[in-house]
Specification:
With 386 residues, the protein is of the alpha/beta class. The chain folds into two domains: 236 residues, 3-Layer(aba) Sandwich (Aspartate Aminotransferase, domain 2), CATH 3.40.640.10; 136 residues, Aspartate Aminotransferase, domain 1. The protein is 38% helix and 13% strand. It contains twelve helices and 13 strands. Strand 4, helix 5 and strand 5 form a beta-alpha-beta unit. Helix 3 packs parallel to helix 4, helix 3 packs across helix 6 and helix 8 packs parallel to helix 12. The chain starts with 12 loop residues before the first helix and ends with a helix.
Length: 386
């Protein structure tokens, strides 16, 4: 098969080549300085991220998962506390809660957005609920307005898991600027990705910011004096300098992803492959696909472009046979994972999440994806469907 017909799920090389001179110079500067742990590069990146997200404070940490852990530690989340969140997300969201001795309490998703169904949150509240942790999945924000009302009414805290949603907006407000704290990931596959692991906590609360800064460095302040037990959760200078180079390009990359999503929608529609969400809920997609829904008021930044497919696994095999990259995010709802059986949930407890796990498939959406390659993806899907 000719090389031009190959469509990877993600190709970071064009982005690197475009920025290579600037990236190489920035990395060489850090190496020359021999200042690798925290320091001026990290502080500069923290200021830039705080400005980008429209918040007062940003604290660089070692990963998106560690951002969640440190944020919850700063809030005092621990044994006996409950955190309300979604069962359809990356493992780190729930693993972070469990590692602190708290209990994740799941609320099902909205099938169109893949995000937590806010209308079901109040029914899940108990006298042990401390935090609501919405996940802005695949690059689209959850419905934060009613969630904030619930949090205020019941004196709860909100941590936004925006690992996949830096720069996403809802009614003009940026992800991580609405809750008490927000968490970002700079894993290489994210819209803003580093050359390894990295994360960030952002907040408008000076007290939480101060505690988080201590916790990321063994609870130390001043040097060798420890008022808290923290950990080694520091962002390193090499990652910070890479991300500082990339950040000014992020909104352009978002725009390219949105253009790619629009082209997918046009091509799927022209091919007669689009089905409404009602067909998904009725259990009959009739040889078509449900495409990602962008909720009113949302600015989706498409970390992933995820469709519903009736014969998902067979479609995935067909795409890979035709050299088209695709991926399942995620093959199991987290209440079905072996290590979370102790939570007591059963098959059927979260039908929308379970359906997403069994029917969803991510297609290539990265910024440098050409219209010709998007056309190729849809042609291969059409050849499977017809």
């Amino acid at each position: 098969m000719p090389e031009q017909s190959h469509v990877p799920l993600l190709d970071l090389k064009p982005q690197y080549q475009a920025l290579k001179p600037e990236l190489d110079a920035a990395l060489a500067g850090v190496v020359e300085s021999q200042y690798f742990i925290l320091g001026p590069e990290v502080e500069s990146f923290e200021r830039n991220i705080a400005n980008y997200c429209g918040v007062e404070h940003a604290i660089g940490v070692s990963s998106g998962t560690d951002a969640l852990i440190v944020a919850m530690m700063a809030m005092g989340v621990g044994e006996g506390d409950e955190v309300i969140t979604s069962p359809y997300t990356f493992f780190g969201t729930i693993g972070s809660i469990v590692r602190l001795g708290a209990k994740p309490v799941f609320v099902d998703i909205e099938p169109g957005s893949f995000n937590i169904d806010v209308s079901k949150i109040e029914a899940a509240l108990t006298d042990r609920t401390r935090v609501i942790a919405p996940v802005h999945l695949f690059g689209q924000m959850a419905e934060m307005e009613p969630m904030r009302s619930i949090a205020r009414e019941h004196d709860l805290l909100i941590i936004e898991d925006a690992a996949q949603a830096i720069g996403a907006k809802r009614h003009g407000k940026t992800a991580c600027s609405i809750g008490h704290m927000g968490c970002l990931s700079f894993f290489p596959t994210k819209n803003l990705g580093g050359f390894g692991d990295g994360g960030m906590i952002v907040t408008n609360d000076a007290d939480y910011a101060s505690i988080a800064r201590q916790l990321r460095n063994h609870g130390m302040e001043p040097k060798y004096f420890h008022s808290r037990v923290g950990g080694n959760f520091r962002l390193d200078a090499l990652q910070a300098t890479v991300l500082n180079v990339k950040l000014p390009h992020l909104n352009h990359w978002h725009a390219q992803r949105r253009e790619n999503a629009d082209l997918y929608r046009r091509l799927f529609t022209q091919a007669g492959l689009v089905r409404p969400i009602e067909d998904l809920l009725s259990g009959d997609l009739s040889g078509g696909y449900v495409l990602p829904a962008e909720l009113p008021g949302n600015h989706h930044i498409y970390n992933q472009f995820v469709i519903y497919a009736e014969q998902r696994d067979a479609l995935m095999a067909h795409l890979k046979e035709n050299q088209v990259g695709c991926e399942i995010y995620y093959p199991l709802s987290l209440h079905q994972q072996e290590c979370f059986r102790m939570l007591g949930y059963a098959q059927g407890d979260f039908p929308h999440s379970e359906r997403a796990a069994s029917m969803s498939l991510a297609l290539p959406i990265y910024p440098d994806l050409s219209p010709e390659k998007i056309t190729r993806v849809v042609e291969v899907i059409a050849s499977f469907t017809h």
